[in-house]
Write a structure and sequence with these properties.
The chain has 82 residues and is α+β, with helices and mostly antiparallel strands. The chain contains two helices and five strands, in the order αβββββα. Helices cover 17% and strands 37% of the residues.
């Protein structure tokens, strides 16, 4: 009877997904940000201090694409950056 229960239990097991914690610093205010990547290896993060939004996507093991958006109501002043 225990064998039947264990076989039935194995059929109901959901595969465990591998979640990886990614930690990096906000480019705007240097706040340390940590979050989990989804199944596609993407992250959508909002900095708790300044409100800047990051969209981080792993393309390969050596390449990561990060898109930073200004906080709501703010803008990037490109004249100061040059």
């Amino acid at each position: 009877m225990s064998r039947e229960c264990s076989e039935a239990a194995l059929d109901d097991v959901v595969p465990i997904k591998r979640y990886v914690i990614i930690t990096f610093y906000c480019e705007n205010c240097s706040q340390k940000i940590s979050s989990y990547a989804n199944d596609k290896g993407e992250q959508h993060i909002t900095c708790p201090r300044c409100g800047a939004e990051y969209h981080r996507k792993r393309i390969s093991r050596r390449r990561v694409e990060i898109v930073m958006k200004a906080a709501r109501g703010n803008y990037f002043d490109w004249d100061d950056a040059i």
